[in-house]
Amino acid sequence: MFSDFLKKIEEQYHNNLPFVVYRKPEDNEVKAVFQHNDHTHKVVDYAETGFVLSPFESSDAAILIYPDETYSSTYRVNVEEKTLKLKNTPYSDKDEEFHIQLIKKGIQAIKKGDFKKVVLSRVLQTTYKAPPVTIFQRLLNNYSAAFCYLWYHPKIGLWLGATPETLIKIENDTLTTNSLAGTQLFTGDLNPHWGQKEKEEQQLVTDYIVEAISGAVSAIQISDVRCIKAGNLMHLKTKVTSKIVSGKLNEIISKIHPTPAVCGMPKRPSKAFILKNENYHREYYTGFLGELNMKKERNRTVGKNTEHKAYRFLKKTTELYVNLRCMQLKDNAAHIYVGGGITKDSIPEKEWEETVNKSRTMLDIIT
User: Which residues are the signal sequence here (predicted)?
Assistant: First the structure.
């Protein structure tokens, strides 16, 4: 039963031991990975096995929760649960002014030719009362199309999120990644009009990913651009598939992370601008997380009729997600992270409103 599953998680948290509990998009299975000690495992070459959480700054180490025990349980979404729509948001005029000035500075740098795009973000703090496991259940109930997770390590902290963006997925020798860019508030139309700014931003991300992985993969295929809904937001998405060369995962990750969807383009100057001008440390926001070389059981029926047996086989899979729509719980406060892509056509006031809309994903959950 799911209640027994939750008790195991609460006990692990009470004992101050590392764990992660998560559900993949459009799935009804919730999984948990438990580590038996509080050792901090750092990823060296991505040949390791476990659940990884990597920061935005790639020079900082990615952390691995080692799978000493794994659990899973079926979860039925509580369709009756509704989130509240906030009448007031925890922003000040000072917050708004700083972020608008930051965006103007980014636009000036783009027009000077320093880079083509930069993703600028901010963090806001608010109070919360519900236990982390309860907040996680609210994420499950309200964001079925997202990767929902609760991650904890006593030496690092506690993070929760519902991210719509896949970084990479590897199954057998097939690598899948997505470019996700452009944002607007969902108003009931699943195929809304998109402006030139959003279309250009999406194409920049797609071009970057294809160029970044081309030396480590073969047979690249690019899908058409389509609209997806993530909570109360709409995005543009392109799927990129290819065949991966064995042993190239570390190289691929180093090339594509951070992507233009969370950093900018070109990567080096846009990242330098972020580190110099954002007034806080992103930590694991806009990093990535997920299963790394985890074993997956599959059933395969051999034969043409039902008398033939179904065989079980194990294979390793890697499925990593960009850490967007997330929050960190620390110091008795929820720290919520939001940002947006800035191009030469950006309007600072509209970009500010975009971050306000994005923040509601987490604010509605904890209110």
Answer: none
**CA 235/CA 180 separation, integer angstroms:** 7
How far apart are alpha carbons 294 and 160 in whole angstroms? 21
pTM value? 0.87
Q: Six-digit token pair at 228? A: 């997806």
pLDDT in tens, 37-93: 999 999 999 999 999 999 999 888 999 999 999 999 999 888 655 554 554 567 778
pLDDT, tens digit (0-9, with 9 covering 90-100), for 196-235: 888 887 887 888 888 888 888 889 999 999 998 876 788 8
pLDDT of residue 151: 98
* CB of 174 closer than 8 Å to CB of 243: yes
Tell me the per-residue pLDDT of 127-137, one tens digit each, with 9 for 90 and over. Answer: 999 999 999 99
**Secondary structure in 3-state letters for the chain:** CHHHHHHHHHHHHHCCCCEEEEECCCCCEEEEEECCCCCCEECCCCCCCEEEEECCCCCCCCEEECCCEEEEEECCCCCCCCCCCCCCCCCCHHHHHHHHHHHHHHHHHHHHCCCCEEEEEEEEEECCCCCHHHHHHHHHHHCCCCEEEEEEECCCEEEEEEECCEEEEEECCEEEEEEEEEEEECCCCCCCCCCHHHHHHHHHHHHHHHHHHCCCEEEEEECCCEEEEECCEEEEEEEEEEEECCCCHHHHHHHHCCCCCCCEECHHHHHHHHHHHCCCCCCCCCCEEEEEEEEEEEEEECCCCCCCCEEEEEEEEEEEEECCCEEEEECCEEEEEEEEEECCCCCHHHHHHHHHHHHHHHHHHHC
Topology, domain 2-81+92-299+311-366: Anthranilate synthase (3.60.120)
The string of pLDDT tens digits covering residues 329-347 is: 998 899 999 999 999 999 9
How would you class 77 by CB atoms within 10 Å of its CB: exposed for 0-12, middle for 13-18, buried for 19 or more? Answer: middle
Report the relative pairing of strands 166-171 and 310-322 from DSSP bridges: antiparallel
**CB-CB contact of 167 with 177 (8 Å):** yes
Q: Do the beta carbons of residue 205 and residue 181 sit within 8 Å?
A: yes
